Amino acid sequence: MEKIIIGKEGGVILRELMDSDLEQLATYANNEKVSINLRDGFPKPYTIENAKSFKKMIDSQNPKTFFAIEYKNHYVGNISLSQGSDVYRKSAEIGYFVGEPFWNKGIATKAVNRITEWGFNHLDIVRIYTGVFEFNQASQRVLLKCGFIQEAVFKKSICKNNKIFNEIRFAKIKA
Ligand SMILES: CC(C)(COP(=O)(O)OP(=O)(O)OC[C@H]1O[C@@H](n2cnc3c(N)ncnc32)[C@H](O)[C@@H]1OP(=O)(O)O)[C@@H](O)C(=O)NCCC(=O)NCCS
User: Cis omega before residue 43 (within 30°)?
Assistant: First the structure.
């Protein structure tokens, strides 16, 4: 299949998710250190069937805003923009994960920079935002490195594994 590449930086490519990625997706996603940082809608355990359903969902998207992250020719994770509706239609929520074997190599930072640039240029949006659980220092660092601003702390808004946490909200505005 032809790769639709939306960004390339330092060995990091954002492209369409392919069938050949699904086994790795299920392996990297089936990790408590990943799922602890994500909403409960992220399957746990994460099976190959979950990976197939996810691909089916994103294949039906138009425009496509969910991408695979490739690093040095290996599939390593996913990144997405989810555009809002109604009065929130000019905003998009960013989401991402990188497989644990590839952490701390600057991959998420490059991927967030690329999808942000692509989103502002190709989607009719003026704002990209997300909420990070308070204990997720790595993701907060990524967003700050990518020029996102901490806008607010939503106190005690998260219930994860039956414990209550703050959510730190970040956003980047189109220049
Ligand atoms: C968050 C995540 C995407 C980061 O991916 P990554 O490719 O390792 O990120 P990068 O290498 O670009 O940057 C990580 C930064 O966090 C820092 N970091 C990592 N762990 C840290 C910790 N425990 N405390 C403080 N900083 C930390 C790294 O040092 C690096 O910063 P630096 O470049 O200033 O040294 C990855 O850890 C992940 O997928 N986590 C699980 C899913 C998730 O959290 N998704 C985001 C939900 S909001």
Answer: no
Q: How far is the CA of 107 from the centre of ligand 1 (A)?
A: 9
Whole-angstrom distance, CA of residue 76 vs CA of residue 69: 6
Residues 70 and 77 sit within 8 Å (Cβ to Cβ): no
pLDDT digits (tens, 9 = 90+) for 106-149: 999 999 999 999 999 999 999 999 999 999 999 999 999 999 99
Q: Is 113 in the pocket of ligand 1 (CB under 6 A)?
A: no
d(C-alpha 170, C-alpha 49), whole Å: 32
pLDDT digits (tens, 9 = 90+) for 70-107: 999 999 999 999 999 999 999 999 999 999 999 999 99
